[in-house]
Write a structure and sequence with these properties.
Number of helices: 13
CATH architecture of the largest domain: Orthogonal Bundle
Structural class: alpha+beta
CATH class of the largest domain: Mainly Alpha
Helix content: 40-55%
Largest sheet: 4 strands, antiparallel
Mean pLDDT: 80
CATH superfamily of the largest domain: Porin chaperone SurA, peptide-binding domain
Order of helices and strands: HEEHHHHHHEEHHEHHEEEHEH
Length: about 400
């Protein structure tokens, strides 16, 4: 496993349970952030994650934009109302059961906190699906077919059938979940990503402000990685919640990912969905530039996987049970870079677009929620129940202080 980039070239150690010889101290600016727009999950549980939000149900039917919001009869099973559309207890419970790892045991407080988070995701999805109806967006059946087939790849049919049965799902449920997932991404693509612009002036200003960072002191490799560990993580680092928990699972997962890469799956998509490294997974596995001197401090197998590979090559390495899939993007020689070099400009544009996308996505979702009529009854009831419990519980009595007997 390679470590993420440090601007100050300080040695970094693994946060995971890995032999120290595998650690990689790196330094160099990371400017190669690639945008990703989804790839269905690979493992069965990850496949079912996208369908978890598919159960907002009939309450999410389209509503006219201009008429007044219809009145809703609120019951104990109403967890939220979004612009007159109900999200019920059953919706949240189903989503919770389908996203929670089956082997994980949660306390009562953890369960309630997770359900609050699930409900929040359902609210956002409901708003995005309503926006899709307003924009008259559709997801072609062909796209759903491709996503469905990709999600089943390298998973035994009997394993899929068993997991569907255990979670009380059907193939239709899975396809509906994929449709909703693809639809919400389509809305964000149209409303946010397609509207992003990076001007030449912004690129030049960025380069001038960071010129020193584009002066390489030594030859460096531009790398990306996908990490698979043989131990369970309390909070999986990837989008799909995909986490190998045993050496056998890790071996099988790494082999499956390599097969998908050979079949043409985008490396950065698989890294975001399946890598278990919390630092590089959100960046599509990107490690930026890794100096040659840093490679001398990592495990020999990893070093050879980099230095003996041509640009574009992908190699899987097993060090102490941890699987690292390494992509060598290229080798850059020492010296000053400038904007006449296509890769420098491309990296700056990608970095600026990534920054803008994160900002505008957050702003768009915030505005969407602000403009909506949302009542979260589940959250309200949790606060009220705690307040009532506190009021009904008498304060703990103080323990009387013991008196020291007087001595005569």
């Amino acid at each position: 496993m390679f470590m993420s980039i440090s601007r100050n070239d300080r040695a970094l150690s693994f946060a995971r349970r890995v032999p120290a010889t595998s650690a990689l101290p790196v330094s160099a600016p990371r400017r190669d952030r690639r945008r990703v727009h989804g790839d269905p999950a690979y493992r069965v549980c990850a496949l079912l994650t996208v369908v978890a939000l598919a159960f907002v149900g009939a309450a999410c039917q389209s509503q006219p934009a201009t008429p007044a919001i219809p009145a809703v009869t609120v019951t104990a099973d109403t967890y939220a109302v979004v612009n007159g559309r109900q999200i019920t207890r059953a919706d949240v419970d189903k989503a919770f059961q389908r996203t929670r790892p089956s082997s994980q045991v949660l306390s009562e407080e953890e369960t309630l906190a997770t359900k609050l988070s699930v409900l929040d995701e359902l609210i956002v999805q409901d708003l995005l699906l309503a926006k899709a109806r307003d924009l008259k967006l559709e997801v072609p059946e062909k796209d759903i077919d491709e996503a469905y087939e990709a999600s089943r790849r390298n998973v035994a049919p009997e394993a899929i059938a068993e997991e569907l049965k255990r979670r009380n799902l059907t193939t239709a449920d899975v396809r509906e979940g994929l449709r909703r997932e693809l639809m919400t991404r389509k809305v964000l693509q149209r409303e946010v990503v397609d509207k992003l612009q990076v001007t030449d002036a912004a690129v030049t200003a960025f380069f001038d402000a960071h010129r020193a960072e584009y002066n390489l002191a030594e030859n460096s490799y531009r790398l990306a990685q996908i990490v698979v560990t043989p131990v369970a993580d309390p909070q999986p680092a990837n989008r799909a919640g995909d986490d190998a928990t045993t050496p056998q699972e890790a071996q099988k997962k790494a082999a499956g990912l390599m097969q998908r890469l050979r079949e043409g799956a985008p490396f950065d998509v698989l890294a975001r969905d399946h890598s278990e490294d919390p630092q590089s997974a959100p960046r599509g596995g990107d490690l930026g530039l890794v100096p040659v001197s840093s490679l001398k401090r990592i495990a020999p197998a990893l070093r050879e996987a980099v230095m003996k590979s041509a640009p574009g090559a992908v190699t899987a390495v097993n060090v102490g049970g941890m699987h690292t899939i390494v992509l060598v993007i290229g080798l850059e020689t020492a010296g000053q870079r400038d904007l006449s070099m296509p890769q420098v400009r491309e990296n700056i544009v990608a970095n600026l677009r990534s920054r803008k996308e994160q900002l505008l996505r957050a702003a768009y979702l915030t505005a969407l929620r602000t403009d909506a009529d949302i009542v979260n009854y589940f959250a309200r009831r949790l606060v009220e129940s705690e307040s009532k419990a506190a009021a009904a519980t008498p304060p703990a009595s103080k323990t009387p202080e013991s008196k020291t007997p007087e001595t005569k």
